[in-house]
Amino acid sequence: MISGKTIFAHKKLLSTYSEYFSHYFGFESDTDCQNELIPICDFSYETYRNYIHFIYTGELFDSNDGRPLMKRLIELIDLSLTYDEMDLYERCTNEIDKLLIPSIVTDLYDQAYRYQLKSIMEQCSRFIITNWTKMLEQINFEQWLSCHEHIRPSIGNLKPK
Protein backbone atom coordinates (compact mmCIF):
# COMPACT_ATOMS: atom_id res chain seq x y z
CA MET A 1 0.00 0.00 0.00
CA ILE A 2 1.39 3.36 -1.08
CA SER A 3 -0.25 6.66 -0.15
CA GLY A 4 -3.53 4.84 0.45
CA LYS A 5 -3.45 3.16 -2.97
CA THR A 6 -3.05 -0.55 -3.55
CA ILE A 7 -1.05 -2.33 -6.23
CA PHE A 8 -2.03 -5.95 -6.64
CA ALA A 9 0.68 -8.48 -7.47
CA HIS A 10 1.44 -12.16 -7.04
CA LYS A 11 3.83 -12.80 -4.17
CA LYS A 12 5.34 -15.86 -5.86
CA LEU A 13 6.05 -13.97 -9.08
CA LEU A 14 7.58 -11.04 -7.20
CA SER A 15 9.78 -13.43 -5.22
CA THR A 16 10.88 -15.23 -8.37
CA TYR A 17 11.90 -12.14 -10.33
CA SER A 18 13.03 -9.79 -7.57
CA GLU A 19 15.77 -10.51 -5.10
CA TYR A 20 14.35 -7.77 -2.88
CA PHE A 21 10.97 -9.49 -2.66
CA SER A 22 12.56 -12.90 -2.36
CA HIS A 23 14.33 -11.70 0.80
CA TYR A 24 11.27 -9.78 1.98
CA PHE A 25 8.94 -12.77 1.78
CA GLY A 26 11.54 -15.38 2.66
CA PHE A 27 10.12 -18.89 2.55
CA GLU A 28 6.56 -17.57 2.87
CA SER A 29 6.34 -17.14 -0.90
CA ASP A 30 5.38 -20.82 -1.19
CA THR A 31 2.12 -20.07 0.58
CA ASP A 32 -0.08 -17.58 -1.18
CA CYS A 33 -1.53 -15.00 1.18
CA GLN A 34 -3.96 -12.93 -0.84
CA ASN A 35 -4.68 -10.29 1.77
CA GLU A 36 -1.16 -9.33 2.81
CA LEU A 37 -0.50 -5.60 2.44
CA ILE A 38 3.06 -4.36 2.25
CA PRO A 39 3.40 -0.72 3.24
CA ILE A 40 5.77 1.18 0.92
CA CYS A 41 7.07 4.54 2.09
CA ASP A 42 10.24 5.10 0.07
CA PHE A 43 8.78 5.73 -3.38
CA SER A 44 5.72 7.22 -5.03
CA TYR A 45 2.78 5.10 -6.10
CA GLU A 46 3.57 5.79 -9.78
CA THR A 47 7.21 4.75 -9.41
CA TYR A 48 6.31 1.56 -7.59
CA ARG A 49 3.58 0.73 -10.07
CA ASN A 50 6.15 1.05 -12.86
CA TYR A 51 8.53 -1.21 -10.91
CA ILE A 52 5.87 -3.92 -10.55
CA HIS A 53 4.98 -3.46 -14.22
CA PHE A 54 8.66 -4.01 -15.11
CA ILE A 55 8.75 -7.22 -13.06
CA TYR A 56 5.65 -8.53 -14.85
CA THR A 57 6.41 -7.40 -18.42
CA GLY A 58 10.03 -6.28 -18.74
CA GLU A 59 8.74 -2.89 -19.95
CA LEU A 60 9.65 0.31 -18.13
CA PHE A 61 6.28 2.08 -18.03
CA ASP A 62 2.69 0.93 -18.12
CA SER A 63 1.33 4.37 -18.96
CA ASN A 64 2.16 8.05 -19.08
CA ASP A 65 1.36 9.37 -15.62
CA GLY A 66 1.91 12.99 -16.65
CA ARG A 67 5.34 13.35 -15.08
CA PRO A 68 8.35 14.13 -17.30
CA LEU A 69 9.99 11.00 -18.70
CA MET A 70 13.43 11.82 -17.27
CA LYS A 71 11.95 12.29 -13.80
CA ARG A 72 10.27 8.89 -14.04
CA LEU A 73 13.53 7.30 -15.20
CA ILE A 74 15.52 8.90 -12.38
CA GLU A 75 13.00 7.68 -9.80
CA LEU A 76 13.15 4.16 -11.24
CA ILE A 77 16.95 4.29 -11.13
CA ASP A 78 16.80 5.36 -7.50
CA LEU A 79 14.46 2.44 -6.77
CA SER A 80 16.63 0.01 -8.74
CA LEU A 81 19.69 0.97 -6.71
CA THR A 82 17.78 0.79 -3.43
CA TYR A 83 16.45 -2.69 -4.24
CA ASP A 84 19.57 -3.84 -6.12
CA GLU A 85 17.57 -4.42 -9.32
CA MET A 86 20.37 -4.20 -11.88
CA ASP A 87 18.23 -5.23 -14.87
CA LEU A 88 15.93 -2.29 -14.20
CA TYR A 89 18.90 0.01 -13.63
CA GLU A 90 20.50 -1.00 -16.93
CA ARG A 91 17.26 -0.52 -18.88
CA CYS A 92 16.76 2.95 -17.41
CA THR A 93 20.33 4.12 -18.08
CA ASN A 94 20.15 2.78 -21.65
CA GLU A 95 16.91 4.70 -22.13
CA ILE A 96 18.55 7.87 -20.80
CA ASP A 97 21.42 7.42 -23.28
CA LYS A 98 18.89 7.43 -26.13
CA LEU A 99 17.07 10.51 -24.83
CA LEU A 100 19.93 12.81 -23.89
CA ILE A 101 19.90 16.10 -25.74
CA PRO A 102 21.59 19.40 -24.87
CA SER A 103 18.36 21.10 -23.77
CA ILE A 104 17.67 18.60 -20.96
CA VAL A 105 21.06 17.32 -19.86
CA THR A 106 21.52 20.02 -17.21
CA ASP A 107 18.12 19.29 -15.64
CA LEU A 108 18.89 15.59 -15.66
CA TYR A 109 22.26 16.23 -14.05
CA ASP A 110 20.57 18.28 -11.31
CA GLN A 111 18.11 15.46 -10.59
CA ALA A 112 20.91 12.90 -10.55
CA TYR A 113 22.90 15.12 -8.20
CA ARG A 114 19.90 15.41 -5.88
CA TYR A 115 19.62 11.61 -5.69
CA GLN A 116 23.43 11.19 -5.70
CA LEU A 117 23.28 8.93 -8.75
CA LYS A 118 26.94 9.09 -9.65
CA SER A 119 26.69 6.99 -12.81
CA ILE A 120 23.99 9.28 -14.24
CA MET A 121 26.01 12.34 -13.26
CA GLU A 122 28.96 10.84 -15.13
CA GLN A 123 26.72 10.02 -18.10
CA CYS A 124 25.60 13.65 -18.21
CA SER A 125 29.15 14.94 -17.77
CA ARG A 126 30.34 12.73 -20.63
CA PHE A 127 27.49 14.01 -22.80
CA ILE A 128 28.36 17.61 -21.94
CA ILE A 129 32.01 17.24 -22.89
CA THR A 130 31.22 15.26 -26.04
CA ASN A 131 28.71 17.94 -27.10
CA TRP A 132 30.58 20.94 -25.69
CA THR A 133 29.96 23.25 -28.66
CA LYS A 134 26.23 22.51 -28.67
CA MET A 135 26.12 22.94 -24.90
CA LEU A 136 27.67 26.41 -25.13
CA GLU A 137 24.85 27.37 -27.50
CA GLN A 138 22.25 26.52 -24.85
CA ILE A 139 20.70 29.46 -23.06
CA ASN A 140 22.02 29.75 -19.51
CA PHE A 141 24.50 26.86 -19.86
CA GLU A 142 27.48 28.97 -18.77
CA GLN A 143 25.44 30.31 -15.84
CA TRP A 144 24.42 26.75 -14.91
CA LEU A 145 28.05 25.65 -15.13
CA SER A 146 29.19 28.50 -12.88
CA CYS A 147 26.64 27.43 -10.24
CA HIS A 148 27.82 23.82 -10.43
CA GLU A 149 31.48 24.01 -9.52
CA HIS A 150 31.35 20.34 -8.46
CA ILE A 151 30.91 19.28 -12.10
CA ARG A 152 34.10 20.95 -13.34
CA PRO A 153 36.40 18.17 -12.07
CA SER A 154 34.16 15.57 -13.76
CA ILE A 155 34.24 17.39 -17.06
CA GLY A 156 37.97 17.96 -16.81
CA ASN A 157 38.64 14.24 -16.28
CA LEU A 158 36.42 12.95 -19.06
CA LYS A 159 37.46 12.46 -22.63
CA PRO A 160 34.96 12.03 -25.46
CA LYS A 161 34.37 8.41 -26.49
TrEMBL record:
Domain BTB: 1-64
Annotated PROSITE patterns: BTB
Residues annotated as transmembrane: none
Domain of life: Eukaryota
InterPro entries referenced in this protein's UniProt entry, alphabetically: BTB/POZ_dom, SKP1/BTB/POZ_sf
Pfam families: BTB (PF00651)
Protein name, per record: BTB domain-containing protein
